[in-house]
Each structure stands twice: as C-alpha cells, then as structure tokens.
Amino acid sequence: MNSKAICSDSGRIKPQLDTGFLPLIGKWRNFQAEARTVAGHRPFILALEQPGGAVTHRQGLLFPANHSRACENARHVERLAKFLLWAQGGRRIYFSGPGEIAASLRKHYAETPEGRFDNELIGHKIFGGSIEVLEVTPDAVPAGNIPARRIGGQWSGCRIGFDLGGSDRKVAAVIDGKVVFSEEIAWQPYFEKDPAYHYEGIMDSLRRAAQHLPRVDAIGGSAAGVYVNNEVRVASLFRGVSPELFDARVRGLFHRIRREWNNAPLIVMNDGEVTALAGAMALGDNAVLGISMGTSLAAGFVTPDGSLTPWLNELAFAPIDARPDAPADEWSGDRGCGVQYFSQQAIPRLAAAAGIDLPAAMPLPEKLVTVQELMAKDDPRARSVYDTIGVWFGYAILLYADFYPVRNILVLGRVTSGPGGERILCEARRVLDAEAPDFARDLRLTMPDETNKRHGQAVAAASLPGVEE
What we know:
Layout: H1 24-36, E1 42-49, E2 55-62, H2 73-87, E3 92-96, H3 99-111, H4 113-127, E4 132-135, E5 158-164, E6 168-175, E7 178-186, H5 195-210, E8 218-223, E9 226-228, E10 231-234, H6 243-250, H7 253-260, E11 266-270, H8 271-283, E12 288-293, E13 297-302, H9 347-354, H10 364-376, H11 380-400, E14 408-412, H12 419-435, H13 437-442, E15 444-446, H14 450-461
Parallel strand pairs: 3-4, 5-8, 8-11, 12-14, 14-15
Antiparallel strand pairs: 1-2, 1-3, 5-6, 6-7, 9-10, 12-13
C-alpha cells in the first residue's frame, strides 16, 4: 500500500455539498482492520486473469460465518472485484476463500443488472467470453504477471495527433516535436446512430491538421474506450450505434482511416493512457497516474520504469463511494462509480445542491461552462462545487494509490479548466495531508497549463507511432 489507512469509514473531511459521501477506501480499510481483530477470521485471495496471460492479485480477510458482520463479506469482495475488473481487467476470476462468496460472485454476474453489464462489456466485448469465477485452493491461484511495453515519445517527422472526447474532438499538427497547429471542434458523438458521423468528424480534423504539414508521416490518436490493436472493443463514443453496425463499421474504423492516409503508421489508444504519457513527458518522471475529467472520466498509468501495462484503467466504472444510495451511472446502473464524481456529469447535481439554477434542457457542456463562468467571478456557490469535487478526489487518490504504485498524479480535462481546477487540487491536497501525511509529502499532484489541459492529449498522441510501423 502507498498510503496509511484512514481512521474511519466516513473520513475526516466531508465534501461540502455531499456530506453523505462514504469513501470506499475508508470502508475497505475499516472492514479489514476490524476483521483482523476477530478470532476465526477467514483469508481470501482474488486474482484476475486476462486471456493474454496478465494476472493481478489482491488478498484480504473476511468475518467468520457466525459473526454479525458476515453479511457484509460478499459485498466487500464484489466491490473489490468490480474495481479490479475495470481498473486492471480480466475475464477469469480465481477465488480462494469461502465457497459461499464464490457462489455469490457467480450469481452477481449472471443475475444482477450491474453484474450483467460488467459481464457483457468486460467479458464478452473486451475479452471475448463470459466472466468466469473459479473457486481454487491458495496454491492454485496463478502467479502474478504484468507484461508491459514502452510506447510514445517519438517525435521525428510530420505527425498528426487527435483526441476524441464526448463533447469535442481535438487535433494537433507536429513537426519534429514542435506544435504548428492545434484546434478544438465541438461534436456530439454519444448517441449518433450512424457511424458515418464519427468517421467524417475524425477525417475532417485530420484533414485540417494535414493542411499545416508538408506530408503526414504518422498519426496517433487518443479516444475514450478500449482499443486492442487499433480495433474498437468498447467505447462510449459509439453508444448510439447498433451492435450490427458496430461490428460492421466501427470495430475496424481506424484500420479504414489508416488506409485513407496511405497506410501511414497509426496507433489509437485509450485517452487515459495518453493522459499518463503526456504527464510523464511533461514531468520528466514516471510512476504517473493520469486523470482526465471531461465528458467522462479517463485514466492511464505509466509504470515506475516508464512502461504501459495491459490494464484497462477504466476508472469511470470503478467505484469510489460505498454508500448504498450513491449516484447511479447512467450506462451501467451501478452506484458510486467515478464517472459520477469526476466528469461533467457531476456538475448539475452539485450545482443544484449549491443553489445554482441550471435549466434542465441545457446540454451538459453548457452547464459546465456556466459554473466555470461563475467560478471566474469567485462566486461562492461555484467554489463549493469545485471544493466538493476536490474532497471526493482526495479520497479517490487514496483508493487509487492502493492499486497503482504512483508518485505523480496529473489532472486535466475540461472540468479542471479555469480557477476551479486549482480549487479541486487544493481540497484534494487537504484530504491527503489530513489522512495520509507521509504519502502526501512524497506525491506530486499537478495540472498542466490551460493550453495543455485541453490539447495536451492530442499533442502527446502524435508521438505514439514510430514512423517505421
């Protein structure tokens, strides 16, 4: 673990506009600390395996079957599995521990709406089959294995980088590492049924950038979702596209785009991964967790040795809030997941709690802009919105640090634009100082400047492919 345990379920610092917030990290650590004091506590091991062989482990303690808190055991393990599924990824779950907990996990993925969502997206769409829960003895749990690769930081030649978000698409033209053009164009891809909208939008941005280059040697892309060998596996950008059209015209979209650009080397990666790469480049250091707070929540991780892992890092779907009535994600239906706290989806809820009247029909990006304009005027209601996000984020960092060996966290995205971004970081630091001062002292928590907040991912994406690929 990278940080010391916080002292209670609820934490020392309450978010101003969300006093019911129950940090999952506090809930987990309290559970483990109390179970350890009970005679007859039961150990468990949870391991996730990807089809490619990557394996990640977690272990802990559960209450005895006759204990009054034994009823919490199944939920404790399921929330841990949920976090691992979306943060690190895998289709096969090895469980060493009480048989009733393994059975409960199987039932969760087969029968509950939230579990079926994970089974469909994580299991079938990303890894090609149903999530399996295998009950094994401790010595049958496969050994940990985290293959990693080095990528990015290639600047020679004339390159285009793009970044596809849910509210805008960004593009940059780069010559030998120097940015000669960048642009941001609004679009609304989420519920477009015709993938031609997405294709034409991406091609339009690429053409605009190409006008500023003598030639195009390589193209790199950053986009929300899961991409394997440039194929789209799961992406919220294409939520409106039917399954049939997705398979026929979306899955191989970037292969088609590469052909349109004379088969120039092209790499598309999850936008969180590119965020982390941008952070490592800007900071001159590794062990970076990049967090982008925009239309959704994106994350990526650069290991201490400067490599990328096969982890999913889809922290939008990973839980951070343990209360039963936490806000529900509109897509998965699960409660307490990061997207409802660290994206523009949180803004209407917080604005209402702060007394800011935003018309229900106003699009989310415009609601965010309205709150940002109030923040620029130092409106106390807007300050409370950003302060609340900051407290949430401080406790989320403590949670993330249990799974990622970080010494740097880089934060960007349209939610952090303007003075509100500094409020978020200030409050997050206040939580870290209060709950884990030793960890806080060694952690570098930063934001890029305003230009790089919005366009840094597109520029970093340009460095992804080698010109020989």
